[in-house]
Amino acid sequence: MDYQSLKDEFNTAFGYQGERVYFSPGRINLIGEHTDYNGGNVFPCAISMGTYGVYAPRDDNQVRVYSANLPDAGIITYQIDQLAFDKNDSWVKFPKGVMYEMAKQGKTIDHGFDLFVHGDLPDASGLSSSASIELLIGNILNQEFNWGVDQLTLVKNGQAVENDYLGLNTGIMDQFAIGMGKKDQAVLLDTNTLKYEYVPVELGDNVVVIMNTNKRRELTDSKYNERRAECEKALALIQKGGVDVKTLGDLSQEEFDKDAYLINDDTLIKRARHAVIENQRTLRAKKALTEGQLDEFGKLVNASHVSLHYDYEVTGKELDTLAETAWKQPGVLGARMTGAGFGGCAIAIVNKANVDDFIKNVGDVYKKEIGYAASFYVANIADGPRQITA
Length: 390
Ligand code: GAF
Prior knowledge:
four-stranded antiparallel sheet, kinase, magnesium ion binding, 11 helices
């Protein structure tokens, strides 16, 4: 999106010229799924699709926000000190939530503003449109109100919006991937210690194709919180049996095999097994990518999907159809769901020469099996949040 047309859109919404344009990306996760609330590793990257914001200050105490993605919601207005959660709030819960959680750290604002947002991330698609907007607003307010906080503070604040303000027990992966995003790099993050490392995504002749099921994934409606609770139960049973670990991410596969009997429940064993092995698999995938062993990397990506299907049970027919069809196409190194699952997006690593046929073939099978079309985008791995115009 070019910034002049964004400013024009601001003008159409608010009737005057907006001032500064900002951007915050979405993310894909290469591997390491449902490990971030289990103290494990994740391996995501920010992408060039994301959320744009046009900002202008006001000299009163009103905040007015307008989203081009939800025009029916119109201009929503609130006062700078009226930030309490309201379950009837539409997307305004994000600016309010970011301000509410930052206010807890003494970071407030002393005048209102108008904000126009327009995202090119498909909504509720598992590409983190929520974290994208949380980091967009955090970065805008940090800049405009001279909060002087670092990106990690904004990342943690975004997670606090999800956990404390909205009541979703998500991990830190999405906000971290977005806030710390770097062009052409994935970030290997140990969610136990928050130690991280950038890894160049060098895929040779291959690109990452994002495959959108076009089935909405609503975290609130999904079994996300239930999966997290199951992992916590499994961990508690292992700890009760005398194993000295703080998270499932502390266990090696061998240790887990030895201790799994302590869980004594088929479903909980499957959930924990995914968390433990996916964590190890993520480290192996990072090693394979770093060493240029792309076939091995692709196989680990496939294995991740299989585990999310059988052990974690978060894929569903739409994501399975995309991944399983992708596996059969020529020039494909690997494919898996990305994000929380239950709908949303999958990714495939595809040879550039095969991309057009890949999209056609997978698209045709998906439409036949599911009854409506999937969408496809080639991912560009991109930088984190930034101000676009001065
Ligand atoms: C969602 C959550 F927000 C992340 O924290 C992560 O748990 C992911 O699902 C699954 O890996 O995107």
